[in-house]
Amino acid sequence: MKRILLIATGGTIASKPTGEGLAPGIDSRELLECVPEAADIGVITAEQLFNLDSSEVYARHWLAMAAHIEERYDDYDGFVITHGTDTMAYTAAALSYLIQYSPKPIVITGSQKSIYARDTDARRNLLDALRYAADDGAHGVTVVFDGKAIIGTRARKMRTRSYNAFSSIDYPELAVIREDRVIPYIESPKPASPVFYRNMDSRVFVLRLVPGQDGAIFDALAERYRGVVLEGFGMGGIPMYEDGRLLQALQRFTRAGRTLVMTTQVPHEGSDLGVYQVGVRALNALEAIEAHTMTIEAIVTKLMWALAQADDSARVRRLFCRPVAKDLL
Prior knowledge:
The protein is an alpha/beta fold. The chain folds into two domains: 2-196, Rossmann fold, CATH 3.40.50; 204-320, 3-Layer(aba) Sandwich (Rossmann fold). The chain has nine helices and 18 strands. It has helices at residues 28-33, 59-72, 88-98, 122-133, 217-224, 245-255, 277-285, 296-309, 313-320; strands at residues 2-10, 15-18, 21-24, 42-52, 78-82, 99-100, 105-109, 140-145, 148-151, 155-157, 166-168, 175-178, 181-184, 195-196, 204-208, 227-232, 259-264, 288-290. It has an eight-stranded mixed beta sheet with strand order 4-1-5-7-8-9-12-13, with helices on both faces. Strand 7 (105-109), helix 4 (122-133) and strand 8 form a beta-alpha-beta unit.
């Protein structure tokens, strides 16, 4: 039987009621006891890494998860991380960059209701994740939720309450899990061996452009951040306005050695700055990276990863523009 490591990190799936609302209070052992059917899937070991609401999770926790898996990688055939849904897509993307080319599955799951509740999606999601982690064809980082397996760089939370909370953005689901079976939609050869990374630079800021945006904010951002992700309008267009000050501010930002990634505010189909004049002029004037169909979660975490590997903006660009786990198509 497959050996699976269950790593609990908190989230709604492990929450109990408190006087101030739900908060993580169920440990990894209790989670596993709630799904006795898991004994038929494999030999499962449960460990508690931390017990947090996922809104509290950020780069140092992603690094801790990756390090925990690296330490135990040779001892298990697959890994399941239970996690809150609020930042699950960020964690899935971050782990996709911190653990590349993994021939073993690293599965992230959670739930919209606690496993402590009577009517909940938690038991099904946990069992589905364990089944996917034990599947012979599974590899790499995935989110398993509501019977779907989504590649880690393409997952996004789209609903705050419904059980079908996560979608695969601009890429098909890898598989579905139905009636205890994993049914693959996309099969790919397993990589030979993983590559682990141990650093991220969290000095990344996301700015959503609004009509009439004052470019002076980029001068302030350049003092504190090495990278900015700019969510433009439509296909990613950057307006010039009457005085051109927004473009001039962006030029100062990139000429200062900072990295600018340009994307769109629209959830699906990505950016294409080469279509409209407002995009072409920006591309010609700026040393910027275009993110195309990448999710914002993938953009942010990949930029954090790339900035940690390189000191100069040219190498950051090369690293960012190298496709990883279907993030750039």
